Amino acid sequence: MKKNIYIIAAIGLGITFNSCNKKGCTDPVANNYDARAKKNDNSCTYDAPLPTTANINLNLTHKVGTENFQFNYSYTDGSGNEYQFTRAQLYLSSPVYMDDSMNVIAAPKEYALVSPNTNSYPFGTVPADKHIHMMNIGVGVDSVANHSDPGEYNTGHPLAYQTPSIHWNWNSGYIFIAIEGVVDIDGNGTFDAGETFLFHIGMDALFAKNSNLMTHFNSVGGQTHNLSLSVNWGQLLNGIDLSTDNSTHSMGAGFALASIVSNNAKTMISVQ
Amino acid sequence: MKNLFLILLIWAGVTSCRKKENLPSYEYKVAIPAHFPALPFPENNPITLEKIKLGKLLFEDKRLSKNGTISCVSCHFKEFAMTDTAKVSQGLNGFTKRNSVPLFNLAYHPYFFRDGGAPTLEIQVISPIEDHIEMDENILIVCEKLNNDPQLKKLSNEVFGTDFTPFVVSRSLSTFIRSLISGSAPYDNYLEGNENALSAQQKEGLALFKGKANCISCHSGFDFTDYSFQNNGTYASHSDKGRQIITNNPLDEGKFKVASLRNLSYTFPYMFDGGFETLEQVIEHYNNGGAGHWNQSDLIQPLGLTTDEKEALLAFLLSLNDANFVTK
Prior knowledge:
- The complex is a heterodimer of chains A (272) and B (328).
- By secondary structure, chain A is mostly beta strands.
- Chain A has helices spanning 2-20, 143-146, 255-265; strands at residues 23-24, 39-40, 53-64, 67-68, 75-76, 82-98, 104-105, 111-114, 120-127, 131-139, 167-168, 173-183, 196-202, 208-218, 224-232, 247-248, 269-271.
- Chain B has helices spanning 2-22, 49-59, 121-124, 127-130, 139-147, 150-160, 166-178, 186-191, 200-210, 244-247, 279-287, 307-318, 323-327, and strands at 90-91, 94-95, 229-230, 256-257.
- Chain B is globular, with a radius of gyration of 23 Å.
- Classes of the chains: A mainly beta (272), B mainly alpha (328).
């Protein structure tokens, strides 16, 4: 009898000690919270945190005036010269997003090396739960990145070395806009040898900001928002007579012509 | 005793393994003269012996050019203090616009090219490769070609832990060029205390250099350049706008980075376009007060040097020749 009492007492003590030391998840906000647990055993599980940013994707439509962009397809400039594009590339960068009160919504710097061969470009993120009323977007590269070393960027990054090259080494900067092609200078209906145009626009002063693009969307964490923009490559040649003004590398005497192209670039992007 | 021996053996093994692992990344001390500043290098591109060796291999590799016919060495010869003797150099698609720059003591330069267009050696070294007149090859294609060479690719992996990329090429070439130091001319010997390293005529020339001829106003410091941009009035007019190409500032027209005066016997012809064949012509140019370009520096004034003084000045300039640099 006495022996049984000892056994029961021992079991009772064991239960008591056990309940005092019960291990489990002690965090009330965890999915597996155990109200009886006295000691946290690191077993708590939680729902995945809500994303704090929304992804931005540029969905671009490439145009020349009202026509769709095509390489090796004849267009006509404002002076009646027939021309065709053989190369078209430009940098889109430095997005600035604004809410209804025109407050700037902080977003990371982004860069996209754009060509008419591709319509879709990932373009970073914006904070979640914001109304994005409008945005500005740059054609070119901001002055800090413009003087960075392309060798520092990993392959695949828009600012890494490219083929064909989109970086000047002689003046350490990126070519913001590279358009090249042929132009029927003498108007004889054919693109004769030497009848070409080449516009390589760069240098800090020629960064072109497209302002006040009405975007109107609410950013949702974790979602990807497609911004449908139109890129009018023909706009770059607005007011330029390709029979006489057909080449610039932006430097020296070519700066004036490059400035015209850069100024045109400020209105080449529109919301679709 | 046996245990002690075993411990020593293990310790030696660990030590030798560590040495081998660390070999490619230890910092290499380039020998520089005592009167030179410490050798600067970018934080992300320390100088290692392996990088210098790989850079030298690339410097001599003709695969850097589009058709595989020229390398960096084609315009930068050791015997000419790492330049050539042409007024302007022959590239794949014609002639360069300017005289080839000698490659020594560039580690100390704050910018590169005669117009200062490249801010770092790492960026500069890619330029001749991609320049359509010079080597006319895209850097990514260069990397492809180099990676097709198993031995060279292995070397890239040993030094950088990766196949050839623009980063590997630019860091290797720039490190090799950064290691090219010239500072053992007779004048350097004189500075280090050997009074007899300069002749009496050369010492007279040194006094003129600092005084009447006023060369030192631009050609100052251990490398005889203050790295400023100056229009020295080489011609009354010329089409090369110089620094203005970079800044777009008309007041920079015709300005070029002040050249070092070391190794002049090897680096002829002179001036931005190689327009002056001899040092006598150069001295005469300055003695006449320049050719009178509208943007010519006010520092260029008629000097009134006598024949003896011009000869003394020339003798001093020749004391800046570093025979070791061009032969060893």
